[in-house]
Amino acid sequence: MGRAFIYWDNSNIFHEAQRLAEERGGGPDARYRVRINFDNILRLAHAGRPMERAVAAGSIPPPLRHLWNRMESVGVDVRLFDRGGPERGEQGMPDQMLQLCMLRDALRYNGHPGIVVLLTGDGAGYLDGAGFHSDLEQMHERGWRVEILSWAHSCNQRMRMWAEENGVFVALDDFYESITFMEPSRPGHEFARARPSTSLDLSRRPTG
Length: 208
Fold this sequence. Notes:
Layout: E1 4-9, H1 10-23, H2 30-33, E2 34-36, H3 38-46, E3 51-59, H4 65-73, E4 77-81, H5 92-108, E5 115-119, H6 131-141, E6 145-150, H7 157-166, E7 168-171, H8 176-179, E8 180-182
Parallel strand pairs: 1-3, 1-5, 3-4, 5-6, 6-7
Antiparallel strand pairs: 2-8
């Protein structure tokens, strides 16, 4: 059983979950009520394998700070970017930080590769020799096994096809009810009930 190295682009995963919540008829204001079940999506990522390293990039709106704290308590290296800072509105900073972590780990564990588990659908930059897809190819050439976890509707198709041919692609859509939950309606909005996450069935999760 290999060691899992997890790299998690939270903005990509969360914002596309919002779109899917609307498409699946999650009720009034579904886009604003859907939340990611951090515990279950982390379990889906490591799939019971030893977690050598996990890095997550995201933002720090105050209501979510306690969730990031919980991730840190289970060993996730959380890198946060202030939405009000100079990088506001830009996804480049979190992406570049994750990519830097990936390449540093590839050097640090040179000769002892593990399983790189990437949570994003962002394949931008590949034609310029940059971005997540390019980094995954370099790691794969050095003996790393590769797994991509992404929403099917938003994953870069070139990157998905490469993962299916050279590693594993896990469609998060297949685990939607387990890795998300819905908060109740906000005061003053049309009523909608909360929805808890269902139990996570890892037997349906492909691994490399």
